[in-house]
Amino acid sequence: MAARKTVPARVEPASQAEPDFARQLVDKARAEGLSLVGPGGLLAGITRTVLESALDAELDEHLDDADGVDPGTSRRADIRNGHGEKTVQTDVGPVRIQVPRDRAGTFEPRIVPKHARRLTGFNDTIVSLYAKGLTTGEIEAHLADVYDATVSRELISKVTDAVLGEMEAWRQRPLDVVYATVFVDALIMKIRDGQVANRPVYVAVGVSLDGERGVLSMWAGTGGEGAKQWAAYLTELRNRGVQDVFMVCSDELKGMTDAIEQVWPLAVHQQCVVHLVRASLRYTNRKDWQKITPALPEIYTAPTVAAAEERFERFADDFGAQYPAVIRLWRQAWPQFVPFLDYDAEVRKVLYTTNTIESLNARFRQASRRRGHFPSEQAAMKVLYLVVREKRNGGSITGRIYGWAKALNALILAYGDRITH
């Protein structure tokens, strides 16, 4: 008798089969009055089935790899030995699962490791909430509300502390040899060191010769930084590989110019124009802003240094008697203000201001404001690193600068002998 042919079942393409399967699950949940999420929900049931199937498959593989047969009983050296129960926290809530055991007690599951009560995705949720500015108490309440999970504040701190090693490796990673620009900006945070005090945290962002932006490092300062301390910060960057920088852009930071000359003698120190404008407005009455704000852009959009000087003198004639502090501020900053005027308008947008890190600073402030103050410098830096890590994974602080090709051509004309690739 001829063998009967087995006709293989038609397999739906993944693009069609997966939506159909999802629809069937939703229909099943509705028909049986099941919730999709939460304890006892459909997704929890599916997660339990997947985890238990994976654990069974892991144990089968472990038993297959077990050596030999017990000579006394003529049985395999290791066999199944029932199940134990445990509850694990997952992205769909707490799930009660059956964990298979082996008689020899040598089975070490990888899907749900021994003693683990939270799967990786759950820890990622904790870290993400922490980076978004939630306190440990708020995270505890959120997890209880959304996942019906009891997670202590101590455990949340332990989970987030797991990134400290990663943060230290990030702060020591090698950097590029040459950067077109390094922006340095300051953020004020409340940190307890015996008593709660305002501490500056400095952030350095680099623009590489490929037009890629990235946070190079962060330092918690004391507020008394001078040339010696700034030289130490910049030397740290040089020791990590940065041998040359065309322009360092910052606010008026005491000792910064001297430190730049010591570490990167050929670099230009550029005053951040946005900070200069903001400082100018702090010295003026709000009722006069409608007259002052149109006048300031005429200075920093001037086509040449000579034109900028002429426009500034006109500004000084108009407002100097009423606001002498503003005029003094601009005169003091003038040597560091004018370098970017050597570039055309498109290049100035890239090089002249710390707008590049404004969005990052907004995220920093959001993450720190809700906490009031930090118990230690390490706790503050941990939160800021988590913000950087999230931005690095797709945020606006990273990625190639739009219109970089034009900027690079101008840089080649200006610094061609210092461009190494």
UniProtKB/TrEMBL annotation:
InterPro entries with a match to the protein in the record: Transposase_mutator
UniProt key word Disulfide bond: no
PROSITE patterns per record: TRANSPOSASE_MUTATOR (PS01007)
Residue spans of biased composition, Basic and acidic residues class: 73-87
Region of interest called Disordered, as start-end residue ranges on this chain: 63-87
Superkingdom of this protein's organism: Bacteria
Swiss-Prot/TrEMBL keywords: DNA recombination, DNA-binding, Transposable element, Transposition
GO biological process, one term: DNA transposition
GO MF, one example: DNA binding
Record family assignment: Belongs to the transposase mutator family.
Function: Required for the transposition of the insertion element.
Protein's name in the database: Mutator family transposase
